[in-house]
Design a protein that fits this description.
With about 350 residues, the protein is of the alpha/beta class. It is about 40% helix and about 15% strand. It folds into two domains: about 5-310, TIM Barrel (Alpha-Beta Barrel), CATH 3.20.20.70; about 315-348, no CATH class. The strands form three sheets. Strands 3-4-5-6-7-8-11-12 form an eight-stranded parallel beta barrel, surrounded by eight helices. Strands 1-2 form a two-stranded antiparallel ribbon. A two-stranded antiparallel ribbon has the order 9-10. Helix 9 links the parallel strand 11 (about 245) and strand 12. Helix 8 runs parallel beside helix 9 (about 255-260) and helix 9 (about 255-260) packs across helix 11 (about 280-295). Bound molecules: flavin mononucleotide (FMN).
Length: about 350
Amino acid sequence: MTPDLTTTYLGLRLRSPIVASASPLTSNLESLQELERHGIGAAVLPSLFEEQIEHEQIDVHELLEHQTHSFGEATTWFPELEDYSTGPEAYLEHLRQAKAALAIPVIASLNGVSPGGWLRYARLCEDAGADALELNVYAVETDVDVSAVDVEARTIRLVREVREAVSIPLAVKVGPFYTAFAHMAAQLSDAGADGLVLFNRFLQPDIDLETLEISPWLALSTPAELRLPLRWIAILRGRVRVSLAATTGVHDWQSALKLLLAGADVVMVASAALARGPSVMADLGAGLRTWMTEREYASVEQLKGSLSQASCPDPAAFERGNYMRALVSYAPSPEAGPTSTSNRGIER
Ligand SMILES: Cc1cc2nc3c(=O)[nH]c(=O)nc-3n(C[C@H](O)[C@H](O)[C@H](O)COP(=O)(O)O)c2cc1C
């Protein structure tokens, strides 16, 4: 029997847990349709930014340009900026067209941090047919007078405002840098989020030593980045009453499987599809099916969360104790030279 990949995310029934994350690939109809043909369960459109709405313009051109040139294979998959979402009206039109062209759910994305007039676009996305809304609260807090409590309160207020504005399901995409993330997750749930998307990647600027300028730097993710969402999804599964989406570092089906076992309802993918093309999505689905058949799992629902912290035979594996154990078990590799070591302990 073919394993059943269907999953429930934000109350939506999806045919697959593999979801296209917000990226230039979801900014154009052709690649969206191609992603759909490769079996994804849903697509998240690129974000409409608070700044874009307030000023009608955001300069992401340099970022995208830079990225295109730094990844040879990616070039074909990066549409030009004109095709990326550049203004609120164009955004809503893209959403309407995506809804008309695709059978899978389409999730609109808003990206901003402050409650304000721009949030009426949440309602406009709902009116344009979005099946759900993802609110990305990416921020870099640099004000020495603004405390963690202030930041959390502002974010919670924002989520409440969006929740009140729309009746479609709401997911909140957050970064990992909260002092007490489990508590923050519970607060987001209380404020009305139906799902959490873990985690935002923070794009760190670099210094160009030739021009002595600060350069924006957008690098695609690496598989090593998977561990952060993996741990937090495992910890939160069963502790907060929201759907959990994993994003960052999914480059193969094994990573997708690990996240589902940890407790993700869906696994989002951007970098792998940008680097290797939309067919990666089909590979991920096929890998999951093969593994499930071999292990006699009938459905994704059956395996979801079976290695979350709550279900795990060794719950401490996700906590501080594991850190200590990993450090203590660090051992030089027998075949390596005196300066080269491998960390066998962490991989156990
Ligand atoms: C070129 C590019 C553009 C992106 N644009 C958005 C965006 O508009 N909104 C958003 O929430 N995330 C955006 N992301 C982040 C991705 O949705 C995803 O969360 C992140 O890349 C981590 O997943 P990955 O490891 O599969 O790439 C973008 C990522 C890339 C590489």
